[in-house]
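User: I'm writing a tutorial on reading structure tokens. Could you give me a worked example: one chain, its sequence, then its tokens, then a sentence or two explaining what the tokens reveal?
Assistant: Sure. Here is the example chain.
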Amino acid sequence: MKLVKVVALLLGVCFFAVQSLSQAEPVEFTGVDINGNELRLSDYRGKWVLVNYWATWCMPCVKELPELEAFHNKHKEKMAVVLGLNMESIKLEKLRAFVSDKSVTYPIVQVEMTVQTPFGSVFGMPTSFLVNPKGELAAREVGVISAELIENFILRTEDK
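And here are its predicted structure tokens:
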């Protein structure tokens, strides 16, 4: 049991570390959120942006929604935001109702299901991409993440 806890701790500390990315050119994304607002990734320059690919039928995705919401609410005014990209065929009204029911307030954009995205490949969900304040890809993670792990990665990156 002790070994399992140590391994879990090490995996948490290594969040994004294995899949840290280095891209010199800013990445761009445009879309319309579920409320009809046009969004551009470049509108968030100066902040970290966690781009999260997810679906309502994906239980790990649903599990991490409260963590992403907490991270977004804590940092949206100064340091970072979350942008949710819903990758499924679902009626907009059902998606809006789901988002409202889960109390998600960060922007949600419905996108087509595809493996290749502007940020990189999505082979499973949830998949999150972290974009630095310059608009460059900094990291990718497949699987559930927490607010604490995102914050720790950003703090370690900013200290360099």
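What the tokens reveal: Helices lie at 2-13, 59-75, 92-101, 147-159. Residues 47 and 79 are 5 Å apart (CA to CA).
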